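Forgive a beginner's question, but would it be possible to get a protein, spelled out as residues, together with the matching structure tokens, please?
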Amino acid sequence: MKSVCLLFQIHQPFRHRRYRFFDIGADHYYYDDYTNDAVMTGISAKCYIPANQLLLKLADKLGDKLKISFSVSGVALDQFEMYAPEVIESFQQLAKTGCVEFLAETYSHSLASLKSNAIFREQVKLHNDKILSLFGQKPRVFRNTEMIYSDQVGVQVAEMGFEGMVTEGAKQVLGWKSPGFLYVNAVNPRLKMLMRNYKLSDDIAFRFSNKQWNEYPLNTDKYMRWLRNLPEKDEIVSLFLSYEAFGERHADESGIFTFLEELLEKIVQSSDFKLSTPYEIIKDLQPVSAVSVPHSISWADEERDLTAWLGNEMQKEAFEKLYSLSNQITSCTDTGLLKDWNYLQLSDHFFYMSTKVSTDGEVHKHFNPFGSPYEAFINYMNVLSDFSLRLNRLTSPANEIEELKKRLAEKELKIKELEDSILKLEKSQVNKNRK
């Protein structure tokens, strides 16, 4: 009997407002509250609330045979508390059913695992504490931001005491191997690995309502047939996808909620499959081998690598500038600064700076609240400059006057450039009028 592991990711970023050069040093509030509120309440009404209500109904109907897992970023939880507390309440009701497992991740949905073990650990601890306080669970399985994984990331995760981790079943990693088995980290075999079946996951997450898809329309009979056609020896079907696929990416009218309900019921009723959480799988099954991942993978784009966030010079510059503040932040106790530090680490900020083209580029444009990657970069660097000034003021008071002088000189230079530009335009217009 194969174990079907259904894991939903939930994440919503804190979006920055348009933060201008002249705001640096003058205005320390960075967030677009109106957009954040509107997006969160909108998606809650279309996705989170109806999807959770559906799962609660199924929990009552199917009992302990229903098994679902969630990976919810701390940033999303913060916004639920601010804008949609009823979503938190519905997740708490789901947690009480005993049918739901909450996974650990970085609080800020950050890329800290690629830069600093200390910051990575702190992010994970913050998230664990949040999950425990809200839902009464201490996570035992880890899901990194965007499923980023490498052998070294796995070592860090194992050292934090996690027994298992989920990641992408990327072709460049698995080769001829199947994602239908349990594996272990190549360096530390105590960490067990579940690999996402990206085709079957994305058939629901991205292709379900696509009328150009050659398999449209997708119904549960067809999907169950695909599950039964998997290799007989496979032990796991890892379906990992964004929760927003239900009601947000695919509207209610597409039949996505009916599909989810019928699929879960048919899996439970089948003699070939059962629903399992990641922790149940790593406890019940034996790994078949190690999986070697010397270079980082993710679940993003066709490459399944890091280029969605660190693929161009703008992204790399912003990333390095952010984490160059790591030593200073360790001595900071100001709650406002620490909150902003956490939210500055969101991987979304770097995603908005992507200059990818073709199919992946369209995805990046869709999620970018800025007019272009370059606008996203400038906006982020302005925010980061102001944050750096505030941090210097607290952690290096002796440098405050010099920093202020430097920023003032930069502003004066910018004003001079603008004045010169205006004079040139005025002269040009005068000359045109004379002609």
